[in-house]
# Entry
Amino acid sequence: MCRHLGWLGRETSASALVLDPPHGLRVQSYAPRRQKHGLMNADGWGVGFFDGATPRRWRSASPLWGDVSFESVAPALRSHCVVAAVRSATVGMPIEASATAPFTDGQWLLSHNGVVDRDALPSVSAAESICDSALLAALIFDRGLDALGETIVEVGAEDPDARLNIMAANGSRLLATTWGDTLSILRRDDGVVLASEPYDDQPGWQDVPDRHLVEVTAEHVTLTELNSTKGH
Ligand code: GLN
# Structure
């Protein structure tokens, strides 16, 4: 389904992360290389970034490849922490900017690559849209990002067909899960990229195994197995 990307490191531009790479999210919007579900990601896009501690978002329900306004402004959008996504809407979900990642609770930016049965989710206090991903984001915000792994294991137990790849950041931590779809890590001299698929063919990209939690901070990158039997 969707493709997403997270960045934590030195300040860089949205265009350097999303538009310029030869297989970045702009190209992944029409020609993803590792997408297991869906052919292209034409149902919208979102770029979220931290302006100091404040998350800001630019979202659209149109394809990223045709957005000339974003192309013009993206070189001037600079941040040390970014969460961006291109969307392939799940059948039955609304196609609108408010259903497009990244979602926010005012502190975190969060993207969901996957699908979940909305009836399998506990009720949540507030969601930006009736889209499955928006409801899942609201649940994760309710539970707190420190419990991200536990929440994914719990939702995965309730809906065994769910795919639950999450990307989330709060400006100093970048978190991601693999649960049914692809994720790669690139450690650069100036920071760390997590992405649904490599944005170029340079060496250094490492695939994350399925059912793992990744945490990136300024100091470290940690991978933890999500153990559905132990529930953590
Ligand atoms: N289920 C979500 C939606 O409809 C995410 C889909 C996806 O990962 N492509 O937007």
Summary: Residues 132-143 form the longest helix (12 residues).
